[in-house]
Design goal:
Structural class: alpha+beta
Order of helices and strands: HHEEEEEEEEHEEEEEE
Largest sheet: 7 strands, mixed
Distance between the termini: 101 Å
Length: 242
């Protein structure tokens, strides 16, 4: 009877004649690449969801409180609301937007559509409503003129936000403070656009006690500022498809 060879004895010591299974040295690499791809997909999905959520939040229409007025006021593009504020063709003051960047907001040759929302601003002085001037945020330049991302087309009080990015350059939403900075007018609790006295503010029909500059310009946001004698804040209806 022949003696088992050295290789046979080694196989018997390992528990059988089957050679050990060899691991593919690339397996760990394949697993790592697969995990990395899953992580990348999840990151992009999260960023996409966050971007869509930010867009939805920026363009969400707030629900106004019950208006104190018995009949809401219909807004119409091109129709002034209130008595004339001033007669200048381009109302931006030397302290505001006359072409240079304001609060990081530039004056360009076109309107943008990444964020396109409309808010409404009503200004009362001792119970009388003053029309917000047309062409705020429109400035002349060497090529004929430029347009800020925040501007007015007419004296209806509708503020147009037509920006190339969802958030303001300083972060967060575009605000009433940005609008007044472009206009070049003061916005404080004792001075609104040069009219001095105690200021009462309403946002969507609700009394607002926070900082005026921080009021966001959201879609169909209704902002009422009253200097001096307070009056019940009107409730406005935006034009169809506005």
């Amino acid at each position: 009877m022949s003696q088992p060879t050295r290789n046979e004895r080694r196989r018997q010591q390992r528990g059988g004649s089957t050679p050990p299974t060899r691991r593919d040295p690339m397996t760990a690499i394949y697993v790592s690449v697969g995990v990395a791809l899953v992580v990348i997909v999840l990151i992009f999905a999260g960023l996409n969801w966050r971007q869509r959520a930010r867009l939805a939040a920026a363009m969400a229409t707030p629900t106004p409180a019950a208006g104190p007025t018995s009949k809401p006021i219909q807004l119409t593009d091109g129709v002034p609301v209130g008595i004339p504020f001033e007669k200048t063709k381009l109302p931006d003051t030397i302290h505001g937007g006359i072409g240079a960047p304001i609060d990081g907001i530039t004056c360009g040759a076109m309107e943008y559509a990444t964020l396109h929302v409309h808010s409404h601003l009503a200004l009362f002085v001792n119970g009388k409503q003053l029309a917000i001037p047309q062409y705020i945020g429109m400035a002349p330049n060497a090529s004929g003129g430029c347009l800020y991302w925040i501007h007015t087309h007419d004296a209806s009080g509708i503020i147009h936000v037509e920006a190339p990015q969802l958030n303001a350059p300083g972060g967060g939403p575009y605000t009433l403070g940005d609008f007044f900075d472009i206009w070049g007018m003061p916005l404080t609790r004792s001075n609104i656009a040069g009219f001095k006295g105690p200021v009462t503010a309403y946002v969507n029909g609700t009394l607002y006690a926070g900082p005026l500059r921080a009021i966001p310009l959201h879609a169909h946001q209704q902002i009422v500022l009253e200097v001096g004698k307070p009056v019940p804040p009107p409730n406005y209806i935006f034009p169809p498809n506005d």
